[in-house]
Amino acid sequence: MTAGPAEPAPSFRGVIALIEQRCTACMLCVRECPDWCIHIEGHPEPVAGAPGGRERTRTALDRFAIDYSLCMYCGICVEVCPFDALEWRPDYRYAAAAAPDLVQERDRLEAWWPGPEPPG
Amino acid sequence: MADPAGSAARELAGAVTAALPGADLTEEFDTLTLNLTVSDWVVAADAARAAGAAFFDFLTAVDEDEQGFAVVARLFDPVRGAGIVLRTLTGRDRPEVPSLAERYPGAAWHERHAAEMFGIAFAGHPDLRPLLLAEDFEGHPLRKDFRLASRERLAWPGAVEPGLPAGREPRRRRRPLGET
Hints:
The complex is a heterodimer of chains A (about 120) and B (about 180).
Chain A: E1 15-18, H1 28-32, E2 38-47, E3 56-67, H2 76-80, E4 86-89, E5 103-104, H3 106-111
Antiparallel strand pairs in A: 1-4, 2-3, 3-5
Chain B: H1 7-19, E1 24-28, E2 31-36, H2 41-50, E3 55-63, E4 69-77, E5 82-90, E6 96-98, H3 107-118, E7 121-123, H4 149-153
Parallel strand pairs in B: 2-5, 6-7
Antiparallel strand pairs in B: 1-2, 3-4, 4-5
Helix pairs in contact in B: 1-2
């Protein structure tokens, strides 16, 4: 039997990476996920507007987690994100001994993205 | 999956509708579907068999909410190379359809699966025990009103509104996909 390639193709759906600078906590991925495996927490934060203008806020992200014990790799979250803050990556080496260790928090999700970080 | 509704398929459909005058034949996605009453279900299958549809492709069901449960079967004629889809509708309260298992032994497992998943009775089936579900399983999982046990425990993460200041209620009530 011939051995296959050592690594999967770049398009392989191994893991979902978070590009945090693009995320606005719009909650679309959370609400569209069929398995309820994405968890977002955030809060409104004041933002400087034009002088004399009204008070503006942006939503700051506190928590972004994906529970890979529930994820079925359908890609709906990646497709639905209006800001392309979620991207597929071919990495697959994140097996764990216990299901709770398959919940990846923000830092792990961000680490899958190789960069460079987008401006702003 | 379906072969295009070419002349062979129309020929087969014609042979079946000849046995059922006034039958409702529709064409969707290149497939000919015969919509039947429950009482015509076996008549149609027999006519298809007589016309050459010797191969039982599949039988399944669809939860059509207030309309009841649709039962859909496809029979295939290997000589003509064409198939026909039979569809019937049975009520929600006591869903029952005659079994095709005596005519098409291959239908037996499909009917067992439809029975356990939707709670549809197949009258005349020789052995209608569950096919895949555990013996002690309660409920019919493919019914639209069947709730997963895990959804009972888990709060929907989409109910959160991170952009809203603390203490403010969202303007409209959000619900998870599929829930009314």
